[in-house]
Amino acid sequence: MGMIGGGRGAFIGGVHRIAAAMDGQIELVAGALHVDPEIALLSGQDLFLQPERTYRTYHELFEKESQLSADERIDFVSIVTPNHVHFDPARMALENGFHVVCEKPLSFNLDEAKQLQSLVHSNDLVFALTHTYTGYPMIKQARQMLTSGTFGKIRKVVVEYPQGWLSTPIERTGQQQASWRTDPKKSGKAGAVGDIGTHAENLAETITGLKITELCADVTTFVEGRLLDDDANVLIRFDNGAKGVLHCSQISAGEENAINIRVYGETGSLEWHQHDPNTMYVKWLDKPMEVYRTGQPYMGEMAQAHTRVPAGHPEGYLEAFGNIYRDFAKVVQAKIAGETPEPQYLDFPTVDDGVRGMEFIDAVIESGQKNAAWVSLH
Amino acid sequence: MGMIGGGRGAFIGGVHRIAAAMDGQIELVAGALHVDPEIALLSGQDLFLQPERTYRTYHELFEKESQLSADERIDFVSIVTPNHVHFDPARMALENGFHVVCEKPLSFNLDEAKQLQSLVHSNDLVFALTHTYTGYPMIKQARQMLTSGTFGKIRKVVVEYPQGWLSTPIERTGQQQASWRTDPKKSGKAGAVGDIGTHAENLAETITGLKITELCADVTTFVEGRLLDDDANVLIRFDNGAKGVLHCSQISAGEENAINIRVYGETGSLEWHQHDPNTMYVKWLDKPMEVYRTGQPYMGEMAQAHTRVPAGHPEGYLEAFGNIYRDFAKVVQAKIAGETPEPQYLDFPTVDDGVRGMEFIDAVIESGQKNAAWVSLH
Amino acid sequence: MGMIGGGRGAFIGGVHRIAAAMDGQIELVAGALHVDPEIALLSGQDLFLQPERTYRTYHELFEKESQLSADERIDFVSIVTPNHVHFDPARMALENGFHVVCEKPLSFNLDEAKQLQSLVHSNDLVFALTHTYTGYPMIKQARQMLTSGTFGKIRKVVVEYPQGWLSTPIERTGQQQASWRTDPKKSGKAGAVGDIGTHAENLAETITGLKITELCADVTTFVEGRLLDDDANVLIRFDNGAKGVLHCSQISAGEENAINIRVYGETGSLEWHQHDPNTMYVKWLDKPMEVYRTGQPYMGEMAQAHTRVPAGHPEGYLEAFGNIYRDFAKVVQAKIAGETPEPQYLDFPTVDDGVRGMEFIDAVIESGQKNAAWVSLH
Amino acid sequence: MGMIGGGRGAFIGGVHRIAAAMDGQIELVAGALHVDPEIALLSGQDLFLQPERTYRTYHELFEKESQLSADERIDFVSIVTPNHVHFDPARMALENGFHVVCEKPLSFNLDEAKQLQSLVHSNDLVFALTHTYTGYPMIKQARQMLTSGTFGKIRKVVVEYPQGWLSTPIERTGQQQASWRTDPKKSGKAGAVGDIGTHAENLAETITGLKITELCADVTTFVEGRLLDDDANVLIRFDNGAKGVLHCSQISAGEENAINIRVYGETGSLEWHQHDPNTMYVKWLDKPMEVYRTGQPYMGEMAQAHTRVPAGHPEGYLEAFGNIYRDFAKVVQAKIAGETPEPQYLDFPTVDDGVRGMEFIDAVIESGQKNAAWVSLH
After folding, report:
1. What is the ipTM of this complex?
2. Best of C145, C150, C280, C290 to disrupt the A interface by mutation (most A CBs within 10 Å)?
């Protein structure tokens, strides 16, 4: 694999590298690791990349790698740059026949997203979007239970993503993660809504199998002088008549990455919190709540297929991330070998999820600008 | 004290009696305990009331008790009837000079509520509304911390009250608690919103000291054939610029009385769950979360004044209820003695909270009928 | 009822009064409330006792009350004095035909305990020992499940009672609760072992239906200069071959009343923590853990009979205490009426539990003195 | 690295490979992966090892690898075989100048352990023993706080390791993990005590910096016909006068890997549970309990140095394991380069911990055989 972005000073690039290495299926062999060519080269040294495959720009990466033989060249790139630098390298990758792993949100705006979607489908390439949370085994379990009707018709969904790290204007202190996320030129039209609201939307739609059809969003910037939203409270309605609440925030002082979801059906419900990802609470109308645990024999097939160690050995965020990479790699391998991938590997977020996320961002921001009017989401 | 309602088949009447008895300040000596005069009399026997003070109707109760000497007659009545029978006995009590404890919501509609409010103030009587949850010691603590600026300006409030007991149409099975709560002739215009949404509203406004100024509510009846709402998701805005989410539900399958609240300020936040009422999570931007516990020496004065046993002896719902009765009794005693009550006793919900609750119901229902348009709350 | 001890400066007396008042079955009408006759009288005024039934000593109480008619006189006394003043008033009560509620541990030493046991049985009186924790509804449920073989044969029991309040020598600061508990002249031969170790022993034997047959105890006084133990770690063996660990401590800094128990059988296990008394974790070899909750319809008969409010309304320590008083009162009422009490009321700790507790204290202290040698418990 | 054991049918070998790969410091290039040479070769194919470095036996591995140049040959071996096959390959590795990572317990008996310890020290090689739990960042934090006197002198330690998976005789069903662990020819003299009791011992001594000086153990085999212990309850005493309880069990039905520890000092205490490894409860005599969380800025240096992702991204068992490998690799690299390793990398369990574990096993089993008599641990 090759990596675009993720060099010195980055956070998520290192996460991608661990996730990719974890299962011995993927090797990092090339990179254009930083927007500054000098830092890009130094970052390559840090990672023991061969100098000749440590590129100064992603343009150079695609040019050179394309000229290598199929045996030698990278099979795919990982794009771990800020939002405004997702589209162009992804486009180039797809146009040059490379499969892609890309950070979320998919792109700077919806138009770019649709172009990428179109390229993926027309070129028949594999594209994974790293909505990590859906990589947890317990989320596989939740999806299987909900979509198979375990609780009857779904009535209500409550999905939350509170963070507190942007409670103060740390973007003005030079904190790199905060700076680009609060800069509309780099993040796009949304702040918290794009960065974490899309995770909540993706989680809710993924595990229920439902689609949000309309929403009403109260979008706020609490920190004075900040240019993008840092909080949003959203009423949501689903295509089966279910209703719900989605809220995300980066000014919820004292919260870490407290993404969580509750889904209520006619006869029971489930509840999951990312901070304790191997546990899920399954509640019933007429019998005791059950506590599901990753790795237990009663877990379903999809969860089992995404679990590395027996029950009682906590798996975390990196393993969830690793699941996306492992599944993606397996599908790429099958594609290269001209085989049909096993169904268990086809469960990772794709470019279609990415387009969906951009539609969600558009709808939330539009609703917010109209003083929380209802906006349809197609 | 005298009790109106709360006889055979009732739930909340027994709770009031335990709460009233708990601190040895109050004795039940009279009652009109059921709408059916025969059951009223039998219910009096159950409770060892003297036959001559076991009344067939509340009209009779007020008539007879009024004729007794000040020494003999009841000082106050507790009204524990369904919503549509709050107003008339409360009105009669106030007109006859009796203090009142009344179940929530205050009345059948806002107009009634305002009449009672007017009577309370003009007759200088004491009126307690049993929004029980504010009786918990930890809620006193939360209020004290939030209103004294512990976390800076409040930015966001998330308050939830999910229940699951009305997930199926049990009102059609003759279940008495369900029947009147889903009957618009007895409950008023709101179902879940009136029964538990008002608790959430009262909790949020009580502990923050803020007022909700407008709201946008998606109000739903999920159970087919039910005549009142059983779920509502509400965006809320406060008078200091804070925003939030309030949702209440009686179709959240598998939930008990899971009322909980999170309040976020600029520098920290707190979180409280009624199911574990003696614990509060206090979160900070830059130091470890703290876990406050009822009865500990570090708790504030108001919490201490409403705690009966040292830390480690869990206090529950009945003790919270008892706190309202104890405080009310102390204020009534002071009133009768012509004294000024101690400030620690003046912290129970009053007729003004009741009017507020009815305004909230009106606003939520109106918003719901307008497809979740924003409605102001004065 | 009459009360001995529990006047000004006391803690547990107030708890007894709330517990006794809660269900409207019991009225406090007489008392000898303090070892100092002057304070005894003032304490009586605090509680609105009639002056003529506010006694200066318990001797006076028994003398005078015995002369009253059966209608007038108290039916029973509550003894809430320090350990060294349990025996004599209890003996006098029993000899004068009064039923007794007594604080634990039963007496100053085993010999006294056996004398009381003998008196209770020979005089056919009702005697309740306030091992409060067995009054919780969930403990009734645990007992029912364990003794009916829900988990097969019981193999292992872990019962703990850590407290931290005696981590420093607060008895030297004049703290009244600490003073007598650390004074061998008032507490007897044991400190923590008597005060809270007996609770652990009683809880373990009560819910399993098993008897401890031998134990090996490492008993320690950590706070320099303290005269009694403040920590004990004990290996235990039961009459069915089960084994276990019991430890109690008053120097576990930062702990409140964290009594908890886990019982493991062949096919499953249960776990209960007093700090969250309405929840019990039921674990299985081959299916998800279940979370039992007080007040739910799936709870057994005994638990239901000791629950006052529906699920979701937390019941606490005072209600558990109230259950002992309510059951005791019902049995006394039946006894007075010459009737057989309903079985549901016969589930409170008695003088036999008290003797058992004194045997446990003797065995633990003896083992400790022999450097944790095994000691049999008959 | 080379691996001995860990081929088809094994569990822990895969864990070692993920842990080793995670940080991009270590590559698996050779192996003798199974006791059956044919399976060893097939296992090598599974892992894409080069055929010429896929060895049939570990003897062959050492012979061949020793002949390779320093550049080519492996730097170390990972020994992931059952207990009775730790000693011989470890000995050969050390005699041939290879560094070693070895599974716990170190060896089949104490004599072997001491031989290995001697070889490690005389040959100046690096030896890591995979007591994984001490690799968690929070355990680094606990150690730092406890050994720096945060809570004053340590008084009490409670360490538990309950599992339930051997509640029934699954070793007779052919379950491979169960079979060798219950076979005295493969496991040594101890069952649960060796497999998990040593983890508890290592955790307790590691985080406190104290040494157990004597113990008293009630050792039991509950499952009929089983040849080794499946449960032990142990009283422990430490070299500073602290006391405690250690218990481990494989018949605690319904438990996963619930290893946990509480350490009480004079002014506070801490509590950690492996199932929620990124959380630690820090309790105080006179202020609210604090909840420490991995990745937060207030965490100490050693914890920070062993954390890969920011707070709110749960790290798990594999990351803890990876920490041991990463630290080990860094120290091996420094050794090879003739440099002094950075102190932060010197915090992994070594052969000395392994000898300690074997001494612990001997003492527990001896005590058990003497009906839980006190046995000294040097």
Report:
1. 0.96
2. C290
